[in-house]
Structures are given as C-alpha cells and as structure tokens.
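So, could you explain the following?
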Amino acid sequence: MATSGVGEDKYRKFLYGEGERDTKWRFGSPPNYDAVNKLFEEGRTKVWPPGSLEEKVQNLVKTWEMEMFNKTCFDDYKSVDLKKYTFSLNGMKPVTLEEMRKLGGGYNTFLQTTLPEKFRVYNPADETEESAHVAFTTAFPRGFALEVLQVYSGPPVIVYKFRHWGYMEGPFKGHAATGEVVELHGMSIFEVDEHMKVVKVEFFMDRGELLGGLMKGASLDGSAAEAAPACPFLTGTG
C-alpha cells in the first residue's frame, strides 16, 4: 500500500524506467512507497543479508503485491506468468487474474471468506476495489508493511512465513482509530518458473487477526458495542 508519486524503490522492481513508460497505473503514476518503507525498516524483526534467499523472496513478494494493487492492465504485470497464474486463499478454489478482478481485486481478494454473510464484519462482496482501497488506506495512513519471517524452501516452490503490520491511525467501518499496531501473520506458497515469474500463489491466514484489530476502537455511532462479541467467528478461519 502506497501513495502516488515518483522516485526509486530499493525493494520493488518494475516501478520505474523505460520498461514502465506505458504502464497504466491505478492512480495515474507509479506509487510512492517511501512511507511504508520507513514503517518497514523501523518495525521489521528480521534484517536479511543482501543477496540472501530470504531477501530475494521478500522483494519478490513486495514486487508482486505492488503489481497486483497498482497496475490496471494485466499486460503490464511482469512478475507473473499471465497465462498460467492462479491465486487461492485458505484452500479455496484457485482463480485466474480475471476472476480475481471479478472478486473485487486488491484487499477483497485477500479477505474472501466462507462465513455466513451475517457474520462478515467486512464483506468483500459489498466492496469495490476503490471502496476497499479507501477503507484500508484511511485506517493505515502510513501503509501496511510486509516482512518475510522465514523461508522454508526456495524456488521453484517457495514456502515462507510472513507478517503484515500497520498503525491504525484512522477509522475503519464505523470504528474509531486506536493508534495501535494491527498485525496479520500467515504462510504462503509461491510457485515460479525458470524466469522467476510467479505461476501459482497460495495464502493461508486468518483474516480475523486483521479485522479484529481494526474493530477494537469505539463505535463512531456513540455506542459501546465491540466487534468481537458481535461475531463469534471473528478469530476463526475466514
């Protein structure tokens, strides 16, 4: 997650240069990751040696995430194999890039759930890519940083553990900002080809860890209701 701007980025490829001259960006120009990079460097728990497998995997994931969230034309994606690529969450049916877009793209893809609708404190079916972007960038004005905690296997089947975090300094879905750190931990599998293009992605994570942290704040309608008691499955598998 980033703001719009120009510059160089030391963790992500395919942002600048001649190869991106005709790239169609969601907000009209390449995103600026200065704020979230600062958050990452100040809050990370691991500092991987330059050139290490862990650093390479971390930068691959950051690059992939940047393209998924910020490039509007599939032909501009350079980190994935457009013909073979699939994505799945928590063992759900794998989907193609086009199917990801139909699910709402961006955050909505990562927050798919099998919960009954009455228990969905955040329902991706009711959100657009734009409304989701506004909701999360408002809650996390400094961004939602990512670090790779451990790499269990290298290419072609990369298995790693990750941590996302950000400071909830803005409201979210009717809940006031808390100023606290909100985290999301999980595991992921990236399958890559001989050119290090991603052909398959699987994520395993509990969306309730993220949403629970975002709904701890007081209700902005003046009530004292809390998110957790309203949803008995909030901390379960989403």
About this structure: The chain has seven helices and seven strands. The longest strand covers residues 181-192. Residues 223-238 have pLDDT under 50 and may be disordered.
